[in-house]
Amino acid sequence: MISVILPTYNEARNIKRIIPAITELFREKAIDGEIIVVDDDSPDGTASIASSLAGSYPVKVRVRKSARGLSRAVIEGFGLAKGEICVVMDADLSHPVEKIPDMIRPILEGKCDATVGSRYVVGGGAQNWPLFRKIVSKGAGLLARGVTSLSDPTSGFMAVRKSILEGAKLDPLGWKIVLEVVVKTKSRVTEIPIVFADRQEGKSKLGFKAQVDYLRHLVRLYAHRYPLSREFFRFCVVGLTGLVVDTAVLVSLVALVGLDPRFAAVFAFGAAVSWNYVFNRAWTFQRGRATPVSRSYLFFVSVCLGGLGVRIGVMHLLIEYAGMGAKPWYIPASFIGIAAATVFNFVGSRYVAFASRN
Q1: Would the pTM count as exceeding 0.85?
Q2: Residues 314 and 330 sit within 8 Å (Cβ to Cβ)
């Protein structure tokens, strides 16, 4: 059985056209299928029109009044679907209904777990798209190259074997459920050429907020795909706050007490390391909270001492051989030393001080 999921919001004029079109395709191709309309409580009566068609067409309607949004509507549709393959498509007739058999065939034949309708493979395209729309689409695709090899990652037309969704922690933001599914399930994907048509009825939902949500969604997916990058980013943020503490102590001891910058850096280190430990344990390396504080703090200090050695070594070279000992050049010398020690500290913190232990 095939389940076609249509997420809708204010698609009253289109829903009465697409449901009969899909049903006619089911009949012509002898497909055992159902249509699931998941509506976000459209004020134009989309859900009522869809419900009125249920007597003549294989339609189920779900109206959502909270936690609305296209991607979450699709996830709810997955839960309602009885088919072994779920097809997701827009309800505005921009995705060609006649391509549904091509979308499900490779999955039925066991060649892949999911298919995505693409405008950018041979045979695909878009009708009457302005240059700006093409640039936005291509640019969005380039931004996603780090998490997927899809030629058209912003496509909203996909078919997926329902079984691969089991256990996947789908948490989409905005509209791009296809990208979410492909990245989170690591499924075998085949791209099917489609010709995208702009809607003829109703208003497009592609606004500024949708584009911002896409960027935020990409950040989440990059963090999911590359968990180290998220931890490293947080580690650097904590390090920057620690840098303020470190620099304040360093400057105070040099300017007010007259200590040698290399000696003052030792005391600056002591103040900053405790600051960084607290915030790295609470925020950056949360998986390491099971390690007793006394133990992880000892390891963290030991790692940072190694980083301190790197920092002092770099500062020494810059002060002795690059003439950066005079005021105020010792400050950038300290910054360079800290940058050189950052990677060392991150690796040691993640795999020693805050390593998850039973």
Answers
A1: no
A2: no
Q: Write down the domain spans for the chain.
A: 2-225, 228-353
Cis peptide before 106 (omega within 30 of 0): no
Cα separation values, 97 from 4, 65, 76, 230, 260, Å: 10, 28, 22, 40, 75
Residue 195 DSSP SS3: strand
Residues ≥6 apart with Cβ < 8 Å to 210: 174, 175
Band of pLDDT at residue 203, cut at 50, 70 and 90:
low
Q: What rounded mean pLDDT belongs to the chain?
A: 90
**Architecture of the 2-225 domain:** Alpha-Beta Complex (3.90)
Sign of CA dihedral 302, 304, 308, 309: positive
Q: Please report the pLDDT score of residue 202 as a whole number.
A: 62
DSSP string over 114-181: EEEEESSSTT-EETT--HHHHHHHHHHHHHTTTT---S-TT---EEEEGGGGTT------SS-HHHHH
Q: Read off the tokens for 312.
A: 């002092």
pLDDT digits (tens, 9 = 90+) for 229-252: 888 889 999 999 998 999 999 999
Identity (one letter) of the amino acid at 65? Answer: K
Q: Write the DSSP assignment of 206-242 as a string of letters.
A: --HHHHHHHHHHHHHHHHHH-HHHHHHHHHHHHHHHH
At which residue do the structure tokens 């936690």 appear?
67
> How would DSSP label each residue in 287-346?
GGGGS-HHHHHHHHHHHHHHHHHHHHHHHHHHHHHS---STTTHHHHHHHHHHHHHHHHH
Q: Are 115 and 189 in contact (CB under 8 A)?
A: yes
Closest CA to 233 of 291, 169, 289, 280: 280
Q: Which residue is associated with the tokens 């505005």?
A: 92
